[in-house]
Amino acid sequence: MQKINDIRRPIIISGPCSAESPEQVLDTAKRLKAINKVNILRAGIWKPRTRPNSFEGVGAIGLDWLIEAGKEVDLPVITEVANAQHVEVALKAGFQKLWIGARTSVNPFTVQEIADALKGTGVEMLVKNPINPDLNLWIGAIERFQNAGLESVNAIHRGFSSFKSERYRNEPMWEIPIGLRTEFPNIKLICDPSHICGRRDILEEVSQKAIDLAFDGLMIESHISPDEAWSDAKQQITPEVLGELLNNLIVRDLETDDQSFFDSLETLRGKINEIDEDLVNLIAKRMGIAEEIGAFKKTQNITILQPERWEEIKNLQFAAADKANLSKKFIIKYLEAIHQESIRHQTSVMNKK
Ligand code: PEP
Ligand code: MN
Predict the structure, then answer these.
(1) Number of domains, the chain
(2) Cis peptide before 239 (omega within 30 of 0)
(3) Domain containing 345: what range?
(4) Is there a contact between 157 and 192 (Cβ–Cβ < 8 Å)?
(5) How far apart are CA 190 and CA 99, in angstroms?
(6) CATH number of the domain where residue 275 is located
(7) Which one of 195, 222, 248 terminates a domain?
């Protein structure tokens, strides 16, 4: 059976959010096989749901449907486990690849229980990020499987719960999977645009972004009639639409041995380093002035934060940023960070005895 580490980039995993019937699983498998781009067939058997009385998966009966469909179309299969008992029955059914979901990765006790159940099995494990943006929790879950002696432990990025996102179901926060890559340079990093987007119209854009960020593959949910899916209907696409999405994807190489490319890249990187240094020096200069203001306010005994001044700064910078083609979202983040640091400098001056 083909190992994840032997699959050529991009590794494509697809199949329905949930297995619903033997026919649905087999039909999806055949249509996915026909697009000729899918490497691994997925389906959820046990579905962790936010509220009771929603569809919680068909349960163990669905394991054989997936195994049989995999054999029929000659594709390896993968499903989600959420406790040791799931592992036991999935192994019995013949699964050699498993993943843990975001609601499982958050719980070290459960992760450990699953890792213990997998000791000595040689199962290939994919670890989804926890629902909250905690890189260490994700790293910890991966380490638990590595420590159980599993040789193939890789990661799936499915985004993070957030109160404020309008665009995404789960905010991608790309810096977190990039942080994971720094920690584990050899790990295969798969992006799951379906659970990040929660909708169909931006799946392609997020998939392209992941590939541009050197992700090794994609897990995208696919259903034979997406609107009628028993779970995650809004984000699923037909196998044929998936085929189009994958055809449109531009997969750039991770490396090259063209020396002139490296020379030009080094020159540009040098320029970036210089600008970064200038930026730090400028910010330091700005903090120096903030301290002078602090000293000045102290002599008059007035408060540090003056709301109308903060509004004025923001409005001035929004206008400038707009002209310079910098996003408002970025400018807000940047100004808030600068402002907080300024307040810290002013406070240290004002409270000096
Ligand atoms: C899934 O892959 O269908 C799933 C339940 O995902 P997550 O754990 O990312 O919510
Ligand atoms: Mn799903």
Answers:
(1) 2
(2) no
(3) 259-350
(4) yes
(5) 12
(6) 1.20.59.10
(7) 248
Residue 297: is it exposed, middle or buried by C-beta count within 10 angstroms (0-12/13-18/19+)? middle
Ligand nearest to the CA of 170: 1
41 phi and psi, to 5 degrees?
Answer: -100, 130
User: Which ligand is nearest the CA of 42, by number?
Assistant: 1
Q: Is residue 90 part of a domain?
A: yes
Output the pLDDT for position 300.
85
Ligand 2 centroid – CA 238 distance (Å): 14
Look up tokens 């991966």; give the residue: 142
Element (H, E) at 153: strand 153-157
What tokens appear for 90 in the block?
């999935």
In a domain, 143, yes or no: yes
- Give the whole-angstrom CA distance, residue 338 versus residue 326: 16
List, in sequence order, the alpha helices (H) in the chain: 22-35, 61-73, 84-93, 102-105, 108-118, 135-147, 175-183, 193-197, 203-212, 239-248, 259-300, 307-323, 328-350
Nearest in space to 106 (alpha carbons), one of 161, 62, 56, 64: 161
Closest CA to 218 of 206, 229, 235, 230: 206
Take residue 208 and report the two structure tokens written for it: 């392209």
Asked if 224 contacts 22 with a C-beta cutoff of 8 angstroms, the reply is no
Residue 303 has pLDDT above 80, yes or no: no
* Ligand 1 pocket, residues with Cβ under 6 angstroms: 17, 44, 101-103, 128, 158, 195
Write out pLDDT tens, residues 68-112.
999 999 999 999 999 999 999 999 999 999 999 999 999 999 999
Count CB-CB contacts under 10 A for residue 95.
24
Paired tokens of 327 = 């996003």
Please report whether residue 254 resides in a domain.
no
Residue 163 CB coordination number (10 Å): 5
DSSP state of 40: E
pTM for this prediction:
0.83
Query: Would you state the structure tokens that stand for residue 35, as one six-digit string?
Result: 């697009």
Are residues 161 and 118 in contact, defined by beta-carbon separation less than 8 angstroms? no
Ligand 1 center from residue 31 Cα (angstroms): 22
Task: Give the residue from 182, 215, 248 where a domain finishes.
Answer: 248
Predicted local confidence at residue 304, as pLDDT: 67
